[in-house]
Amino acid sequence: MEPLWKLVYLLEPAPITLILTAVAVTFGSAFRALNYGKEMERNRDLSEASITLDRSQALMIPIMSSCSLLLMFYLFSSVSQLLTAFTAVASATSLFFCLSPYTTFLKSQFGLSDPFVSRCCSKSFTRIQGLLLLLCASIVAAWLVSGHWILNNLLGISICIAFVSHVRLPNIKVCAMLLVCLFVYDIFWVFFSERFFGANVMVSVATQQASNPVHTVANSLSLPGLQMITKKLELPVKIVFPRNLLGGILPENNAADFMMLGLGDMAIPAMLMALVLCFDHRKSRDTVDPFDIRNSKGHKYIWYALPGYAIGLVFALAAGVLTHSPQPALLYLVPSTLGPIIFISWVRKELTELWEGTMPNQNDKTRLVEV
Questions:
Q1: Of 57-61, 160-164, 166-170, 284-288, minimum mean pLDDT range
Q2: Contact 228, 218 (CB under 8 A)
Q3: CB atoms within 10 A of CB 190
């Protein structure tokens, strides 16, 4: 156990940036999920409807995640190039999803004409959408060539936002079941996996770098500029910040080291926050300002879960500094986010409604697609 005074290193630029980024991404993912749901309701668009998890699917997530973790632990070197290619496609589509609302806003603000120019996969593409897709592909290509951590974070954040927008939870009961299962999952694979598999499986997988297929192709074809293409890539399944960010550096760490936080540690709490945002929206059905805490019809539960998330993240980083070992972030994030929501809803006598979920009316049922 390290002395308590070492907690002062949490005031370094890297930890502060990591905390602020994670909080912003979590809130942004939840709010984008709410807006996306309202867009689907307005457009009656079932082709891009979100998936609502039931209890069996929620229980399968930790099981399938464990299988995927073991597969990557033993076979990562064999499938790393395939994973990189799959991640590149997922990153481009997620980035397109995140940037699309801004192009719509710009078109409406400046009155830009945007005719349809092509059709792909039963969907029509406009000229601006084609240019946006080209921009997203260029960003992914830049990441494949450089492997820069800023591009890695940008793609990881876009994947997180797209995932939370498309995968939803129906009520707090299923949400609590999922969070508790992932709570146990995270603790086991970080603290106890070494006893069974001879190494910390979670840390080993999280810190492995994937082979870059672009470098492999360029090397086989003897293309010029090969030395500019990185051989290994950090996959955008986590956000990373160099410990020497803005000149700060924690003691006993190399300046090339990175602080990291898995996407799941942002996406899972964001699913909870998206749930309570949708809950308040269904109750009010009014246009409300999410920053108006005094408004009883505002998105009130988010202002208990979001500070709880920040506090839980600080505790996770503090535990890592004091124990000098990796920490399962969900060990701290699940109680600090789910606990306040359940307690406040119980005080306000809304726990039963939030626990079971509000039943959609007949018109809403036609807009739901469940797996």
A1: 284-288
A2: no
A3: 21
The β-bridge partners of 211 are: 232
Q: Higher pLDDT residue, 45 or 236?
A: 236
Active site residues: 186, 265
Which of 8-17, 157-166, 297-306, 348-357 holds the top average pLDDT? 157-166
Q: Identify residue 132 by its one-letter amino acid code.
A: L
Quote the strand ranges of 42-194, DSSP E: 51-52, 116-120, 123-126, 167-168
Structure-block tokens of residue 265: 């540690």
Q: Strand ranges (DSSP E) for the chain?
A: 51-52, 116-120, 123-126, 167-168, 210-211, 232-233, 238-242, 258-262
**Contact call for residues 174 and 267 (beta carbons, < 8 A):** no
Burial of residue 276 (number of CB atoms within 10 Å: 0-12, 13-18, 19+): buried
- Kindly tell me if the per-residue pLDDT of 28 is higher than 70: yes
pTM greater than 0.85: yes
> Could you please report the per-residue DSSP string of 273-313?
HHHHHHHHHHHH-S---TT-TT-TTS-TTHHHHHHHHHHHH
127-146 helix and 55-110 helix, angle to the nearest 10 degrees: 120
Cα atoms in the Cβ-side hemisphere of radius 13 Å centred on 168? 25
Q: What's the start-to-end Cα distance of the chain, in Å? A: 46
Beta carbons within 10 angstroms of residue 269's beta carbon = 31
The predicted structure's pLDDT at residue 116: 67
* Residues in CB range of 98: below 8 A, 6 or more apart: 32, 157, 158, 161, 162
Tell me the C-alpha distance between 127 and 129, whole Å. Answer: 5
pLDDT in tens, 116-174: 666 555 566 777 888 899 999 999 999 999 889 999 999 999 999 999 999 999 999 99
The vertex-312 CA angle with 309 and 318, nearest 5°, equals: 140
How many Cβ atoms sit within 10 Å of the Cβ of residue 261? Answer: 22
In whole angstroms, give the CA distance from residue 277 to residue 93: 25
Whole-angstrom distance, CA of residue 237 vs CA of residue 187: 19
**What tens digit of pLDDT does each residue of 176-225 get?**
999 999 999 999 999 999 999 999 999 999 888 888 888 888 888 777 77
